Amino acid sequence: MGDRLTNLAIEQLRDALRAVGSPSFFEAYKTFFSTRIAFGTFLMLRFDADQPPLLLDHWIEPGKLIGRPLEDYMESSYAFDPFYLYRSLPKEGGLFRLADIAPDRFFSSEYYLQYYRGTGLCDEVGLLIPLQDGGVAHLSLSRRDGQGPFRRSELRSVESYAPLLLELLAQHCIAVAPAPVDQPGTARPPLSDAIRSHAADRLSIGLTLREAQIAGLVLQGHSNASAAKLLDIATETCKVHRRNLYRKLVISTQRELFGVFKHLL
Length: 265
Fold this sequence. Notes:
The protein is an alpha+beta fold.
């Protein structure tokens, strides 16, 4: 782990270990982090494919954020969250910074500008670890504008304990939130399906599956090249589909695209 465990770290980790699976785990876990890194939000979630996130517990600094960011996230905007969408997760998990896993145009996307920065948040790091039952456990720590971005020294103080912290997070998540039982009608349709349905039902516009997929990826913050790579098509082909998409919607910018489909958030 690099540095020798201090007596305080041993005591805090022992408290968290003893509390795994119990209501007191969240506070014990948060205490360990709070002595090493400052944050404005501390959220513990479980992600499962094609399902909304499950909020296990949370802490948000009272009166500091704008609007209702947690409610908006849990209702719909999680579909644009790079942590929720991250697919290159190693089996041992890891500590990730938002800037390291976000799509290449995420920080100029309307979602980021309106829904993320609009709440007063400026930076985020997260622990992510795959679970044996197929889900992913996630711990999110965010910083407010007044706190400034996370400093490298702060992240190093957490990174050295990451293997233990990830294992504790995984064990607690499995204990309190086992894999959900499949129930008809509970899964959220893919964003591309929601986009196609809205275009057809509300706008009387027929979008192809590829056009809807590209619309979703653009809204999530992907460039043409990035979207093309994910869809395994040529960048020029992606550009053609995007032009056709914009022509059908009678728009010309990503901001206008967001305006058409922002209610899906």
